[in-house]
Amino acid sequence: MEVTLLVTSRVFDIPGLPAPARRALARNGLTSFDALAACDERDLAVLHGVGARSIELLRRALAQEGRDFGGRAGVVDDG
What we know:
By secondary structure, this protein is mainly alpha-helical. It has helices at about 20-25, 35, 40-45, 50-65.
């Protein structure tokens, strides 16, 4: 019997991201960091299941990739 493994996007591997947020992102096609970075935070905030805590987790994950919402490059605070 052959077993096929499904590789999930790193968005779904973000530690602590609640299941309702994961489902809302998936329903809206936001399954990659590219798709997520192209979004505006305000657009995410209206999704059922995505709250302030989830947006903060997503923001931190994008920052680790040197990115931000809306396609902006992440800002490094050196002060």
